[in-house]
TrEMBL record, chain A:
One of its GO terms (cellular component) is nuclear pore outer ring. It comes from the Eukaryota. WD repeats lie at residues 207-249, 251-293. Its main location: nucleus. SMART domains: WD40. The keyword Repeat applies. It is found in: Nucleus. This is Nucleoporin 43. The keyword Repeat applies. It holds the Pfam family WD40. Keywords: Nucleus, Repeat, WD repeat.
TrEMBL record, chain B:
It comes from Hucho hucho. Keywords: Membrane, mRNA transport, Nuclear pore complex, Nucleus, Protein transport, Translocation, Transport. GO terms for molecular function: structural constituent of nuclear pore. One of its GO terms (biological process) is mRNA export from nucleus. Pfam families: Nucleopor_Nup85 (PF07575). InterPro entries: Nucleoporin_Nup85. The keyword Protein transport applies. Belongs to the nucleoporin Nup85 family. GO terms for cellular component: nuclear membrane; nuclear pore outer ring. It is found in: Nucleus, Nuclear pore complex. Transmembrane segments: none annotated. This is Nuclear pore complex protein Nup85. Component of the nuclear pore complex (NPC). Functions as a component of the nuclear pore complex (NPC).
Length: 372, 688
């Protein structure tokens, strides 16, 4: 819990995301974006931790983010992703999907593309609940049960899957360049292949009979068949989408809704989750292989970010630590990363050694020394 | 009627002429709605104003900077509530003091930020607004700090004056600024504010700092060196009570009297007569009230005067004696004609240890409940508020917290904080929460889930049900049957689930296909919520089995839907029609027994329907009759085939003599075949 500082920002924070850094420079991220919710005027904001040239050892700047710029956002920010280094895609409770451009020279934000009512009901707004990017493609999901596919450079809609879900879709992630995975409010994971025509998923996974809503999903950065999900009961599920209908492992994590789960993008033996119960957990599984995990793939990507797709060059024959991991045998360690606090941690993001999270207590926490 | 404590303030409503029109109003939790009314008892609708005005008492919760105060103090508040009741009070006190300090540091942080923006803003009106907020926070912190010293820390004689000195020093920090300015100048000793700085230091009891500054002057006047040395010595030797040491209060008192006699002697010797400044300082050291009052400018407030007076005249004052000195200091310091400001009377009430008066006056003077709510809560934890009975609500603490939390709940975003405050109001908190939480506007499912979580954690099942129902209705309005069903399952709302199941079945009857299969196929135990939902799930299962060509299972399920009375009677015809393709299969699917049961169902249905319905068009009636005829035919044919088949299989199994017996005990000619239901439990030993 050392080195973690609260910054009160007078807005409930719904999303926090690091700006991707180029992997060649071995830099730690220093810019992140946040989105607010439930305010009369919501906004997206860009923050900076420490100015360029200031050494990381300088404790004066440690963890105190400075506001760089801010822009009004219509409706709650329900999801937020960096498309690339200077474009941000947001999902709004009004159903709109917006691309914001961050101008580095003038440090301002502007709207570069807006799909109004991308998600909607016949005579009402339907919140857009999730967005995932694989530049230039953008996939969004909503409470209306639709999946939409956009391209950042085109105004029109590339593809719509109507009635993809009978209930609300809560989150989406890319499995491969043409395959996505969605989770919904009745505890199902659905695989969709954009090469297939029609409105049917290629596979449905669920915990039989449980129907516990799922709120978040993340894919293992190197091994695309492994995904982690979290839901209303706060359980962490690890799935192998190649095998069977059942999750590979189920771990008790939080006492209320798990809002986000993320594998560490370059060191996937580490996983992070945050919850409505106000906790932020760091999960570490010790992999038995001698191969350091950074050799398992991801070297060829120019941008390290979870929205980017790692090449399928990872060593698939290695048994993944998450699938062998057995919490009872002590392979898995969990640590609380926040001092006790009561209000929900809505979002987290981790990149390099840096972690940022935002809460309903209107605070942003930054930790620059995550033990990875 | 009780008399009012203060004259109420007037809020003008823009565009409203009170001479000609009248106002109506409605109370809200933190505001009132005001609208124009027509007063005249009869006639003349003079075209009222179309506006409804919202009048807020508290603007502060809309200030982005003050929001930080609310958020951070919420954290401290919850921490305070978690301090265990059964802990010995000796251990609690340091905790309470540290919590009090935490509250104050949050106020200070807020104040500093407000000060910064007040300076940097271009907008003059905004700057004034920030400025006034700063001065309010300043006063709030001043009062809080004094309450901390007097009530929470409850410093005993000796330490009391030291704490009060700290209090004055903290809130009169401009001395340091002036000192820095003087010392940074070219020749500090000749700076016009030089003596002000020295005397200010002495007035605050900061002798070491005063001596350091004095040295500058001494260096300039070598002739008066001895005099400076003497004063320096007096300042240095002034005894200060040290509560940490073993020294008792009496020992300190003796020491202090000795020192004072020494200072007195110097005055009588006229040791400082040649330098009026030094003489003044010396007179201050003996607590000469006239000289102190000559430095009103430097003291600036009566409570500074009080503390300085205590330091030099009564350093061992007991808490119980404070009120006497406070009153006299205030009267001596303030112009007798001027009315004391609210702040003065609040501080005086604190010095008089009248906690209730402090809280009451603060409630009147401040426009929101943040301060009084939190302070009262802390004092209540310190067991300082004897059960002061209100003639309304529960106790004072709870009343103030409820007011504060209700105010937060009117805010579109801060409502979440209010929940924890309601939790810690044992008497009425839950009722307040129950009433408020249902009224939180729900734009997204995520927000609904957060609200539901709050309710579930507190076993507020009624509210959970109501919120789920709101969401279900909303989904239904948007024609999202699946979502609506999910919400009503979560609400365990059987009636609504039945309604939605009906909609699904209607859709099926109209389109011949089911929508939202991903949901209906995965109902699991949730299916049991309502009969209609069970039927929907089972009926869909029948279709699945049929689609998978598992005809035997499908047939069994279809029959059981009717015999177990799961299917509504209105749906039997559809079910029987669904049985048709199964009856027409080349293979025999329904056994003889099952066919009998189907027939029984059909007859039951037709016997009910024998009374012709005048509302139904003849054409429908015809179709229905044809359908029934078709069914009867198919059933009869199937029965024949089934009997033959079953007979064959039995013959094959146990031989002809058994088959003969079966025929004997079996159906009699002319008997309606469905009656065989009663005697179907025949067993082989009958034959014996």
């Amino acid at each position: 819990m050392e080195g973690i500082n609260a910054k009160y920002v007078s807005k409930k924070i719904s999303k926090t995301r690091w700006r991707p850094v180029s992997s060649s420079s071995l830099q730690q991220p220093d810019i992140f974006a946040t989105g607010s919710w439930d305010n009369e005027d919501n906004s997206i904001s860009i923050w900076s931790i420490g100015e360029n040239g200031v050494s990381i050892m300088d404790d004066e700047f440690e963890g105190d983010p400075q506001l760089v710029c801010e822009y009004k956002h219509n409706g709650d920010v329900l999801d937020l992703q960096f498309l690339d280094q200077d474009r941000i895609v947001t999902a709004s409770s009004t159903g709109a999907v917006t691309i914001f451009q961050h101008h580095h020279n003038s440090q301002t934000l502007s709207v570069s593309q807006l799909w109004d009512r991308a998600h909607h009901y016949p005579c009402d707004n339907a919140p857009c609940t999730g967005v995932v990017c694989n530049s230039p493609e953008i996939v969004t999901v909503g409470e209306d049960g639709r999946i939409m596919l956009f391209r950042a450079d085109q105004e029109g809609v590339l593809r719509t899957i109507e009635k993809a879900d009978s209930s609300a879709i809560h989150a989406v992630t890319f499995l491969r360049t043409t395959e996505i995975l969605t989770v919904n409010s009745i505890g199902q994971l659905k695989l969709w292949d954009f090469r297939q025509p029609g409105n049917e998923p290629s596979q449905i996974l669920s915990l039989t009979g449980d129907r516990v809503p799922l709120h978040c999903v993340d894919r293992h950065p190197n091994q695309q068949h492994i995904v982690a999900t979290g839901g209303q009961d706060g359980m962490l599920c690890i799935w192998d989408v190649r095998q069977g209908n059942m999750p590979f492992s189920l771990m008790e994590a939080h006492s209320a809704e798990m809002w986000e789960v993320h594998f560490h993008p370059s060191n996937p033996d580490h996983l992070f989750s945050c919850s409505e119960d106000g906790s932020l957990l760091h999960w570490e599984t010790s992999s038995n292989s001698d191969t350091p995990s950074f050799l398992k793939g991801g070297r060829n990507t120019s941008i390290i970010s979870r929205s980017a797709i790692a090449p399928a060059g990872g060593n698939q024959s290695l048994i993944n630590a998450w699938l062998t991991g057995d919490s009872s045998k002590g392979h898995l360690e969990t640590t609380h990363m926040l001092p006790s606090q009561m209000l929900s941690v809505n979002s987290l993001d981790v990149l390099g050694q840096c972690l940022v999270c935002g809460t309903d207590g209107e605070a942003i926490y930054v930790n620059r020394h995550v033990p990875i | 009627m009780e008399e009012v404590d203060v004259e109420p303030t007037t809020t003008p409503i823009p565009g409203f002429d009170s001479n000609q029109k009248h106002l109506g109003f409605v109370w809200g939790p933190g505001d009132i709605l005001v609208y124009e009314t027509i007063y005249k008892a009869s006639g003349g609708s003079a075209g009222g104003c179309p506006f409804v005005h919202e009048v807020r008492k508290d603007e502060d919760i809309y200030s982005p900077i003050l929001r930080k105060l609310f958020n951070e103090s919420h954290h401290i508040f919850v921490g305070l509530q978690r301090i265990r009741e059964d802990m010995p009070s000796k251990n609690k006190k340091p905790q309470f003091v540290s919590i009090s300090k935490n509250y104050r540091s949050v106020i200070r942080a807020c104040m500093e930020e407000l000060q910064q923006v007040a300076v940097s803003t271009q907008d003059a009106a905004l700057a004034t607004q920030y400025g006034s907020q700063v001065s309010i926070l300043l006063a709030v912190e001043l009062i809080w700090n004094l309450c901390e010293v007097l009530f929470i820390d409850a410093a005993p004689a000796g330490s009391l004056v030291l704490h009060l000195l700290d209090w004055v020093r903290l809130h009169k920090a401009d001395v340091d600024e002036k000192a820095r300015e003087v010392l940074a100048s070219e020749s500090p000793a000749e700076h016009q504010a030089y003596w002000d700085v020295v005397i200010s230091y002495v007035l605050q009891g900061r002798m070491d700092e005063a001596r350091q500054v004095l040295v500058k002057q001494a260096a300039l006047q070598p002739a008066a060196r001895a005099m400076f040395k003497l004063l320096d010595n007096l300042l240095m030797k002034m005894p200060i009570f040290n509560p940490g040491e073993t020294q008792t209060l009496t020992e300190f008192d003796v020491k202090w009297r000795h020192w004072r006699e020494e200072v007195d002697r110097c005055l009588q010797d006229q040791s400082f007569a040649s330098n009026p400044h030094l003489e003044d300082i010396c007179k201050i050291l003996v607590g000469d009230e006239d000289v102190l009052l000559e430095h009103k400018e430097l003291l600036s407030t009566w409570y500074h005067f009080l503390v300085t007076r205590l330091l030099f005249s009564h350093p061992t004052v007991k808490p119980t004696e404070l009120h006497y000195y406070a009153q006299s200091s205030m009267h001596m310091f303030l112009d007798t004609r001027s009315v004391p400001e609210p702040l003065d009377s609040i501080l005086l009430a604190a010095f008089e240890f009248d906690i209730h008066q402090v809280i009451k006056d603060c409630s009147i003077a401040l426009n929101n409940w943040w301060f009084v709510g939190h302070l009262t809560d802390l004092l209540d934890h310190c067991k300082l508020l004897q059960s002061h009975n209100l003639h309304f609500g529960s106790n004072l603490r709870e009343f103030l917290l409820l007011e504060y939390a209700s105010g937060l709940f009117t805010h579109h975003s801060l409502w979440q904080l209010a929940v924890d405050y309601f939790d810690h109001c044992p008497e009425f908190g839950r009722v307040y929460l129950e009433l408020q939480i249902e009224r939180v506007p729900l734009d997204t499912e995520r927000k609904a889930l957060k609200v539901i979580r709050i309710c579930e954690q507190r076993q507020m099942t009624e509210q959970v049900r109501s919120i789920c129902k709101i969401m279900a209705k909303k989904a239904l309005r948007n024609n999202r049957l699946g979502s609506a069903l999910s919400w009503s399952i979560r609400a365990k709302d059987a009636a609504f689930a039945t309604l939605i199941s009906e909609r699904f079945l209607q859709d099926y009857c109209a389109n011949g296909t089911f929508s939202d299969l991903d949901l209906i196929d995965n109902l699991g135990p949730a299916m049991l919520l309502s009969d209609r939902l069970t039927f929907l799930g089972k009926y869909r299962e029948f279709h699945r089995l049929y689609g998978e060509k598992r005809f035997l299972d499908a047939a069994k399920l279809l029959l059981s839907l009717m015999t177990a009375k799961i299917a509504p009677r209105s749906f039997w015809m559809t079910l029987l029609t669904d049985a048709l393709p199964l009856l027409e299969q080349i293979e025999v699917i329904f056994s003889a027994d099952q066919t009998h049961e189907l027939m029984f169902c059909l007859e039951e249905l037709t016997s009910e329907k024998s009374v012709p319905n005048p509302d139904r068009p003849m054409q429908d009636e015809d179709i229905e009759t044809t359908k029934i005829e078709l069914l009867r035919l198919a059933l009869a044919r199937n029965l024949a085939m089934a009997i033959v088949k079953e007979r064959e299989s039995i013959e094959g199994l146990v031989g002809g003599w058994v088959a003969g017996a079966v025929v004997l005990t079996g159906m009699q000619p002319g008997q309606p075949f469905w009656r065989r239901r009663q005697d179907r439990d025949w067993e082989p030993q009958v034959i014996g």
